[in-house]
Design goal:
Blueprint lengths: L11 H33 L4 H50 L2 H7 L1 H26 L1 H16 L4 H45 L1 H6 L3 H53 L5 H43 L21 E8 L9 E8 L4 E6 L5 H6 L9 E6 L2 E2 L5 H6 L1 E4 L8 E2 H5 L8 H10 L3 H5 L8 E2 L8 H13 L5 E5 L7 H14 L4 E5 L3 H4 L4 E6 L2 E6 L1 H7 L1 H10 L2 H22 L1 H5 L1
Parallel strand pairs: 3-10, 3-11, 6-9, 9-10
Antiparallel strand pairs: 1-2, 1-4, 4-5, 7-8, 11-12
Helix pairs in contact: 1-2, 1-5, 1-9, 2-4, 4-6, 4-9, 5-9, 6-8, 6-9, 8-9, 13-15, 18-19
């Protein structure tokens, strides 16, 4: 937890003010017993009402000043703790934002959410106690011991005995509680994971009638967390009465021993009462410290988990001397003997992949499930880095570019359309906030999204729920494609982005994209043969290796893997029909580019 204290540096002046107020609170609290002793010894015993009134008025003013200082301590402690937790939360969030998929998979999404919320909340709670109690308690305790010793040194052994017993109890509680707190945070992670899986997979759970199974998993995670929480809370419940017992026994012992000293004339009754108050302050100080120590173990576990996130350096980051991608234009993508293996895996997912994708042509990837298609295109924007070989963008290794420049050149459309809470317009403009209304409308028209947008209430201002829950899968994909188009990148990457579209919309969308991506590099991962028939280059993947490269007709003749895929989806007549349609599309595009051909 000490490693996180460096984030308190911006609050140095507030900390100094807090310490000053703490001293004021302690001074006011410890000054009152002296005046009380004087009232009893000199005022009541001697019937001096003037002294009683004078000291009583001073006590009232001191108590008022102490109350102001206490309120100030509470205010500053809360302000510093909340600001401190806000800064740590920002640090954790920015660190997670820089993580590659490797680090995300290492921690898990559920754990990262817990660390960013529950763990930081634990630290904030303890920080308030540290600033209010841990600063005040030692000052109060030491100062009270000093004053009590000078007031009645013959009774000081009672305080020493009580403090020794308290320290022993605190040590035992600390040793028992710490392992449980480590388990507790892991159980919170587990409960979050189970809850998240239930919420995101609700339709699948219902479809397979597995509500009871998931309920049992949740019940187990919930019961384990409850049992551990009960154990920790019982420790704290036992702690308080034990401390109060020690406090009361100490008071009884002081009165018992003090009565003898008063009877022998070695102690005044006012001094004994003041000594009792000092003893109470000393024991209460240790009681406050013990309460903090009970909570510190859990906070220390949380701090350790937060430090794990902050200290984790992302594997994928800018090189020491990055090259600005703004100086390179074209969008030529080239793989040279690329091999990739997931962290911890024994066998590579991709092996010796080499090809070149140029502007103005569409390069498509097809293959069976698990052949490495999505993995391959995830290497281009550096969601992962290659294990060996290199990926060149305009002749420069992508690892040499600044990440933000690299991302600016790419329009990435994932297989599962991801939308954010907001409006249709805000989602389309997500990658290009400066885009004009006409550009937004044009991108929606190209992606075949305009038709359903116009049917929404509010049209482009229609609300989009979190995760796009209020639109269909096909609508999500079309909005995701519009979001990439409006960005006007040099490279378009479609990761099976047409899978949720019907054949008619798929064909219309691809034809509209032809005009939009004429001089761009287009990379398409597809499962359907119909989506890639017109591609200038089709790369067939099989078990992480290239099984064939060419156009549709060529691969039908020369590539067994492609032929199997093609005939599993389409009959020979359908393949021939599709080829006629492809030729017609090409002819229409060429005629638009060269009107003289149309006249011919």
């Amino acid at each position: 937890m000490l490693k996180l204290f460096k984030y308190l540096k911006p609050y140095t002046l507030q900390m100094i003010a807090l310490i000053a107020l703490v001293f004021g609170t302690v001074a006011a609290t410890l000054e009152l017993p002296d005046y009380m002793a004087a009232i009893i010894n000199d005022g009541i015993a001697k019937s001096d009402t003037g002294l009683i009134f004078h000291n009583g008025l001073l006590m009232l003013l001191i108590a008022l000043g102490g109350a102001v200082c206490t309120v100030g301590v509470g205010f500053l402690a809360s302000k510093i703790a909340t600001g401190f937790s806000r800064d740590i939360r920002n640090k954790v969030f920015s660190r997670v934002e820089s993580f590659s998929l490797v680090e995300i998979n290492k921690f898990s999404t559920a754990s990262l959410i817990t660390r960013s919320t529950n763990d930081i909340q634990q630290i904030q709670t303890v920080m308030v106690l540290l600033l209010r109690m841990v600063l005040q308690a030692p000052i109060m305790g030491i100062w009270a011991i000093f004053k009590a010793y000078h007031l009645a040194s013959s009774l000081s052994w009672i305080i020493a005995l009580a403090v020794a017993i308290l320290l022993g109890i605190i040590f035992v509680m600390f040793a028992v509680a710490l392992p449980k707190f480590k388990i507790l945070q892991k159980l919170v992670d587990r409960l979050n994971l189970v809850t998240r899986e239930n919420l995101t997979g609700l339709r699948v759970i219902r479809a397979f009638n597995n509500e009871k199974l998931e309920q049992a998993k949740f019940e187990k995670a919930n019961v384990d967390l409850t049992a551990t929480n009960l154990f920790v809370n019982r420790l704290m419940v036992v702690m308080q009465p034990v401390m109060m017992l020690i406090l009361n026994l100490t008071s009884v012992l002081i009165v018992w021993m003090g009565a003898g000293l008063i009877n022998s004339g070695n102690l005044e009754i006012g001094n004994m009462i003041a000594f009792i108050q000092y003893a109470m302050q000393i024991i209460m100080s240790f009681l406050m410290i013990s309460i903090v120590f009970i909570m510190v173990p859990r906070a220390s576990v949380s701090a350790e988990r937060i430090n794990e996130v902050i200290d984790t350096e992302p594997i994928i980051k800018d090189s020491k001397n990055p090259i600005s991608a703004k100086n390179f234009h074209g969008g030529v993508v080239e793989f040279k003997n690329v091999t990739f293996c997931y962290p911890g895996a024994d066998t590579p997912v991709l092996e010796n992949i080499s090809f070149k994708a140029s502007p103005g042509e569409t390069t498509a990837f097809i293959g069976s499930t698990g052949s490495g298609k999505s993995t391959l295109i995830n290497l281009i924007p550096r969601f992962y880095d290659v294990s060996s070989g290199e990926i060149l963008l305009d002749g420069v290794d992508v690892r040499q570019y600044k990440l933000e420049d690299l991302y600016a050149k790419i329009g990435f459309i994932p297989q599962k359309g991801v939308l954010f809470s907001g409006t249709v317009e805000s989602n389309i403009k997500y990658g290009a906030p400066e885009a004009s209304n006409s550009e937004v409308k044009k991108s929606a028209e190209t992606s075949q999204a305009e038709e359903f947008i116009n049917n929404l209430e509010g049209k482009f201002n229609a609300p989009i729920a979190e995760g796009g829950a209020n639109v269909s899968g096909g609508q999500k994909q079309r909005l995701s494609i519009a979001r990439a188009i409006v960005r006007k990148p040099e490279i378009y990457i479609f990761d099976d982005s047409f899978s949720a579209l019907d054949f008619k919309t798929d064909a219309m969308l691809r034809q509209a994209l032809k005009g939009e991506t004429q001089n761009k590099t287009v990379l398409i991962v597809a499962q359907r043969i119909s989506t890639i028939l017109s591609a200038e280059k089709i790369i067939v993947l099989d078990d992480g290796k290239i099984a064939g490269v060419g156009i549709h007709q060529q691969l039908l003749k020369d590539c067994d893997v492609y032929r199997e895929i093609a005939y599993s989806q389409l009959s020979e007549d359908e393949l021939e029909t599709y080829q006629i349609d492809v030729n017609r599309e090409k002819a229409e595009i060429e005629s638009k580019e060269n009107p003289s051909l149309l006249a011919t």
